[in-house]
């Protein structure tokens, strides 16, 4: 089955573990209670009907949010039909495990499962039929957040509602979306109840939203990728000065593009042309330098962990942080700490 391998990291077991760390929970054998409480979590119209009478129903739903993002896992046991009606102030990406989801919406019919997920913008009624035993991992994104990112990519107002194509190809362009969701789950596990620090939270949000807007086809895709003139060199200099002058700020490309008064795509292209790196690559280099400076200052006998420093500067994966650190400074972070 394609989807589990896309969503698992190297450290995870072979079986798909969809549990969320420190979640809000629903655990009930009452379909009415499951529907009402799920509706409360999502803040939208939500209908559910059990299609297999006589089979035991047990709703197990988990939910964890981070700012305008959320992850929800759901399983019910027997086959169910679920319906949602606008207005719904969310965009969702629905990953399916252990079965198939048959979908009817304004764009037609879609089947999610295996190497296909489904993206919903909920501009029309959506009806889903879940096969028995299906388990779902659903990413939720508040529409105002993704529309703000879209405005920054376009550098103009969004005049029509954003509409994603429903099928998400996890073996193709949707791989980036699956990877961004995997990173979010991993960071929530590492950071516990307190959640990721601001720098890391901003990185995770940016990864989710850019992977959606650049990887999943939608009605603004052509406009995002249309050719435009690059900004003047002074724009890049101003952005670099901002990054260097505020090293503790959790900048995203959206923030930097807004500061520069250009689109994200234009700023990215200008950075590539003038510095040979993307804006976020430059930001990460600065964060690596900050982490290096802090490790040099810390007392190695005080019980401080390298992982804590990495998380503080926006690095959620210890192995990748160590590799980037070694490539930049010629030694591991633990060696720097022991000096």
List its traits.
disordered N terminus; 7-stranded antiparallel sheet; Jelly Rolls; Arc Repressor Mutant, subunit A; 20% strand; single chain; 339 residues
Question: How is this structure best described in words?
Answer:
- This protein has 339 residues and is α+β, with helices and mostly antiparallel strands.
- The protein contains 13 helices and twelve strands.
- It folds into two domains: 2-187, Jelly Rolls, CATH 2.60.120; 283-337, Orthogonal Bundle (Arc Repressor Mutant, subunit A).
- It has helices at 2-7, 31-42, 143-154, 175-191, 198-215, 221-225, 233-245, 253-260, 264-275, 279-297, 306-312, 318-329, 333-337, and strands at residues 24-28, 47-50, 59-66, 69-75, 80-84, 90-97, 101-105, 108-112, 116-120, 126-130, 135-142, 167-169.
- The strands form two sheets. A seven-stranded antiparallel beta sheet has the order 1-3-4-11-6-9-12, sandwiched between helices. It has a five-stranded antiparallel beta sheet with strand order 2-5-10-7-8.
